[in-house]
Amino acid sequence: MANFPTTPHLVLRTEAGNRYLPLVGSNCWTIGRSEDNNFAISDRWISRTHAMLQCMDGGEFYLIDLGSRNGSFINGRRVSIPVILHNGDRLTFGQTELEFYSPSPASEDESEELDSQDFTVTAALHVRRLISVMVVDIRNFTVLTRQLDEKILSEVIGTWFRRAGNIIRDRGSWVDKYIGDAVMAVWFHSTEKATNEEVLRIFQALNSLHEATVELNDRYPLPFPLRIGAGLNTGYAMVGNTGSGDRPDYTALGDTVNSAFRLESATKEIGLDIALGESTYQYASGVFSDRPSLFEQYNVHLKGYEKPTITYACSFETLDAFLRSNAQNP
User: Fold this and answer.
1) CA distances from 213 to 117, 136, 160, 199, 216 (A)
2) DSSP 191
């Protein structure tokens, strides 16, 4: 009997037999016609960089269309936003179909046989670190899905997610989570405080995300301008490796993360684009020392918190003007 891979993989069925594409050794794999992809597929209906699979904390795999012309499909349904894959799902790109397999973890009986030391080592990987968490959300996405052609919607959102991932990686982080029409990224700070350089990179990433969003408005016939909002929070959190030895997945847990999501939601209440936690604002004061009025202070009621929370907010236009001025007068 042929050996069947026991690790997550894709199966490409061809006339010459099955081709197994292993999903190991990384947490991100691209699929497309170009040889630059992790999985290059010769199909003229597939875009040069068509889609991406990303393994998140907890072992979930997401399929993310990267703005392809002909779309990505799961079990015959076109996807616009990142979608969680399930064992046995059929993925279609162009005229090519692949099958996704993620074998179930060990049974309870097998798990009981594992040395308890294994669990101790895993737990020890979680450490308390100072981090900054950024949550960016596409505004009015539900309304957009009702008013925009499905093909154009897929291209717009896929392109946005691809650019968001590239921008965040270029600025020293990675996309930690995809949540529907939003992304979460985490920056680890190298010392007991966030340096001016680290904080500046985060704000540059935010500004680049805004610029990428504006470019999509010029490129596609949208019913209304695409906009994003962002929450940014800095504090201590438990950070650890939740993946296997050959595919580590670092993630953060705690109030610092939860507050970043709440701050993003608060921007809608405030009517501005970016909301900072109080600690983030304190760390950012060194970067924005010559523009103390850049951020306005507000008291907001965050969901799940009993007392009002102080936040500092500004618009993307204000942030962009500062960064441009700062670049011209270093």
Assistant:
1) 48, 11, 7, 22, 5
2) S
Q: Are 47 and 66 in contact (CB under 8 A)?
A: yes
| Nearest-angstrom CA–CA distance, 233 and 219 | 32
Q: What is the pLDDT along the chain (330 residues), one digit of tens a residue?
A: 445 567 899 999 887 788 999 998 888 899 999 998 999 999 999 999 899 998 876 788 999 888 888 889 999 998 888 889 999 999 999 999 999 999 765 433 433 443 433 333 343 345 778 999 999 999 998 898 889 888 888 889 889 998 998 999 999 888 888 887 899 999 988 777 899 999 999 999 999 999 999 999 999 999 999 999 999 999 988 776 544 433 335 566 778 989 999 999 999 999 999 999 999 999 998 888 877 788 999 999 888 888 889 999 999 999 999 888 876 555
Tell me the β-bridge partners of 19: 12
Q: Are 212 and 160 in contact (CB under 8 A)?
A: yes
Q: How many CB atoms are closer than 10 A to CB 136?
A: 26
Strand partners, 209: none
Contacts for 288 with CB less than 8 Å, ≥ 6 apart: 294, 295, 322
Distances (CA, A) of 61 to 87, 123, 130: 10, 23, 27
CA distance 87 to 150: 26
- Strands ordered across the beta sheet of 51-55: 39-40, 28-32, 51-55, 61-65, 83-84
Cα first-last separation, the chain: 67
